[in-house]
Design brief:
- The structure is a single chain.
- With 294 residues, the chain is an alpha/beta fold.
- The protein has a single domain, classed as Alpha/Beta hydrolase fold, catalytic domain (Rossmann fold, 3-Layer(aba) Sandwich), CATH 3.40.50.1820.
- 39% of the residues lie in helices and 18% in strands.
- It has twelve helices and eight strands.
- An eight-stranded mixed beta sheet has the order 1-2-4-3-5-6-7-8.
- Helix 2 packs across helix 3.
- It starts with a strand and ends with a helix.
- The model has no long low-confidence stretch (mean pLDDT 97).
């Protein structure tokens, strides 16, 4: 089957999301959520490599890819983005589903696993655990000790007006910078890089993509309130261990954040699904087999 794309308008959420969809077999559908500054195109190589025994749904998050650039800063709180996806899946009449997320998509996936009873399993790729306050604090502390603090781009985008004033016309430089941090021996696929650049040049992208970071103060407050709350669905952490942004400290104590979890480190950077899609696809297939065999 081929992947199709279509816009889906969520009237109650006042947003139109672009949705990639690939129909498959009768197994429980898989929802895949991308991060910043990418788009749902990142999942095409993964879906190509996975078995075609289930339907795959992979939308562009609000403000990125080909989804609508719309909403105030509150709309970009990760809990609110999860409500976008929850409404989308209801609109598409999706029942039980598995969810995978990387970067901010991984945070949205965690919010869904906490708040949507339809979620059957959770797979997280290279992002902090929102219920692991102590691990996150250790990760932030390690970053602050780094003289080349990788968090600079967050402060840049949190400064009102900076991103939309300085990034238009420089999108290729911006995108290529972040996707240059691959693990030794790995490479980013050029067609994906070109697609991410194309999407970031859509009018007002810089302004709305920055809201992912301007929403962080509210996100931090919510995550602090989740300390000690465990994910109850079977969970899988896939970690590219050469990630300069999400270092190993962020995962310290991860076992205490889940009732049922496994973790596997792979030789990759932050954008693990782009660097080693075949490895990622194989491991997700294997994990879903284990979950569905129970």
């Amino acid at each position: 089957m081929e992947t199709t794309q279509k816009p889906v308008t969520l009237e109650d959420r006042e947003i139109t999301l672009n949705v990639r969809h690939r129909p498959g077999g009768d197994k429980t559908p898989l929802v895949l959520l991308h991060g910043w500054p990418a788009s749902s195109a990142c999942w095409e190589p993964i879906v190509d490599a996975m078995r075609a025994d289930r339907t795959f749904i992979f939308p562009d998050l609000r403000g990125l890819g080909d989804s609508q650039r719309k909403g105030d800063v509150k709309s970009f709180e990760k809990y609110e983005l999860a409500l976008d996806i929850k409404a989308l899946l209801s609109e598409l009449e999706i029942g039980p589903y598995h969810v995978v997320g990387q970067d901010w998509g991984g945070v949205v996936a965690q919010e869904l696993a906490l708040g949507d009873p339809r979620v059957q399993s959770l797979t997280i790729l290279n992002i902090n655990l929102i219920n692991n306050l102590q691990g996150s604090l250790r990760g932030y502390e390690a970053q602050m000790k780094n003289p080349m603090n990788p968090r600079w781009y967050m402060a840049f985008q949190q400064t009102p007006g900076f991103a939309e004033a300085m990034l238009p016309g420089n999108e290729a430089l911006w995108i290529r910078y972040f996707f240059s941090f691959t693990a030794e021996g790995n490479a980013m696929p050029e067609p994906l890089i070109e697609e991410y650049i194309r999407a970031y040049t859509i009018e007002n992208t810089a302004e709305y993509a920055a809201k992912f970071y301007q929403a962080l103060p509210a996100d931090y407050g919510r995550w602090a309130s989740l300390a000690g709350e465990k994910q109850t669905v079977p969970s899988f952490i896939l970690y590219g261990d050469k990630d300069p942004f999400l270092t190993a400290e962020f995962y310290e104590g991860y076992e205490d954040c889940f009732e049922d979890v496994r973790k596997q480190d792979l030789h990759a950077g932050h954008f693990i699904q782009d660097e080693i899609p075949l490895d990622v696809a194989e491991r997700i297939d294997h994990f879903l087999d284990q979950v569905e065999a129970c």
